[in-house]
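so ive been stuck on this for like two days lol. basically i have the seq below and the ligand is zinc ion, smiles is in there too. i just want the complex predicted, nothing fancy, no docking runs or whatever. if the output looks off dont worry ill sanity check it later, just need somthing to start from for the group meeting slides
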Amino acid sequence: MKAAVIKKPGMIVVEDVPNPTPGAGEVLLKIEACALCGTDQRVLSGEKHVDVNIVGHEITGTVAGVGVGVKTIKKGQRFIVQTVIGCGQCPMCKIHRENLCEKGFVAMGYQFNGGFAEYMVMPKVAVDQGCLIPIPADLSAETGTLIEPLSCCVNGMKYIPLEQMEHIVIFGGGIIGVLNGLVARARGAKRITIMDVSAARLDLLKKLGLPFDDLINSGVNSPAEWVKTATGGRGVNAVVVAASVKALVGVGLNLLRRAGHLSIFAGMPKSDPVLPLDTNRIHYYELNLHGANSSSQEEYLQARDFLVAGKIDARPLVTHRFRLDQFNEAVKTQGDPSCGSLKIVIIP
Ligand SMILES: [Zn+2]
Ligand SMILES: [Zn+2]
């Protein structure tokens, strides 16, 4: 089969590799589509280490074969792939929060070969955990690839009462900021503002016709001044930080009204994550802080159901499609802001 193989940092070659075969308890998937993610970009460049040389974790596939002992999964069924695999034993895994596994989770496309290939094997531990999430026949393969990143956004906002919210602000107009905004919309938040420092990025979101109320250039407008005017000085109900800029956490806290919520969706640079905060504002305003670390099965099911029910329209989000043999072109397109990509999907 063909696969995009990482030879060394920054050097990926699409070449023939032996066809994988499913062992006992394993499932062979024919890849229908696999989307490129920002994390993939960091792995491909060598900035982030993984154990395998075929990556890709936003996957839609069809079962092409099953190993001995696989009873409930049949050839021809369609699935998307849950990335995270927990130990199954620790207290977090026992309550199905495998994304918070105390032993540290492993993941498809990181410790096991991923989806930038024609075929991929789901290991027994993933099959047993239920990492194959069924999708209906009429859900397109490329929309299926969005379930993984969408599930992470569902997770990051799961304790935020969006249904009752008048106004939320999202920092970051990349695909993750957009998906957070779409989850907020689907859950009933009334006014959704996306802020980004890139005018080109905001123009792209406008061009795609995404259902947001305000697209604000926070390089030109002060977020504090803008929110003050827009809310009559009260502040917004929630802020999501979907850009890897730690200062935005402090900026975001100051935008919140009483009982507000702030989600730190983005991871910050590991060398520099510490930030001084006004703890009295958190205390007297009774503010709520949320983390976000990947997702577990429940969030995949919710993300899938948002798409299947049409509560989230994913069609405008995929801006570019490439064949597997164009893999390097796809990576270049994602890394070049002038290409105006939001989500790029590889269709083998
Ligand atoms: Zn991803
Ligand atoms: Zn565990």
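The first helix runs from residue 38 to 44. Residues 37, 39, 57-58, 148-149 surround zinc ion (ligand 1) (CB under 6 Å).
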